[in-house]
Structure formats: structure tokens, C-alpha cells
Design goal:
This protein has six helices and five strands; from the N terminus they run E-H-H-E-H-H-E-H-H-E-E. The protein has 134 residues and is of the alpha/beta class.
Amino acid sequence: MSVRTVMVDSSVLIDLLRRGLDPALELRQRARTMDLATCGMVRLEVLRGIVRAKARDAMEGFFNVMCCASTDNRLWDEAAHLAWTLDRQGWTLPSTDLIIAVCARRIGAAVLTLDSHFFDIPDLPVMSSLDELR
């Protein structure tokens, strides 16, 4: 898969944090030729779970240097349409994942995730391992 921008899902960041690793260091070492991206939903999911203020500040700093996909009413409409379409096909996915997927599509990014739901979203490039960033 040849991509230039990678939307890092909260599942990856939370996994790194739980293992005591610095997400910024781990991702920067692997994604030297790619832009790392985030969105408000990922930011919310990750920051709400960090207990220590110093760790939260560090993670917030990392989010601040990543490309951020903006959300507007059109994005929410796209996510609602995607949800409706997938629901009719028998695929009921979490709304948070749909927002992240639409944000990634908006900026032309692949999604780096440990969450299998993203593989059910048509026309969304998905990476499931940090090793794919090399």
C-alpha cells in the first residue's frame, strides 16, 4: 500500500500508551516518509483516558503537531450517509469509527488501527500494524 498520509486511530495510540511506550517516538521512527494525521474524535477518545496530567499534556502536544482533519456539517452528513448505507447492508459499525473513517477519506489518508471495524468500510485503505509504516 502506498500512502502519504496516515490517520492514526485511537486503538493504536491507546495500545502504545498502555504498553508504556511514547506514541510520538514510536510513530515518528516508523513513519519517516508519511504525514501522521488525527481528528477530533481520536483526540477525544485518547485524551479522556489519560490519568496523569503530564502524560496528557505530552499527548496533547503530539496531537498539536499532527495534521488534523476538520469536521463540519458536511462531514457529519457523510458519516450519517455511510452509517445508513452500511446498516442496510447488515454492517452496524460504531459511530466513532465512522467519523474517523470519513475524516481519513476527507484528507486522503489510510487508517492505522487495531480495530477490525475499519476493514468493513468500503474504499478505505487500512493498515493494521506499525510495521506497515516502514
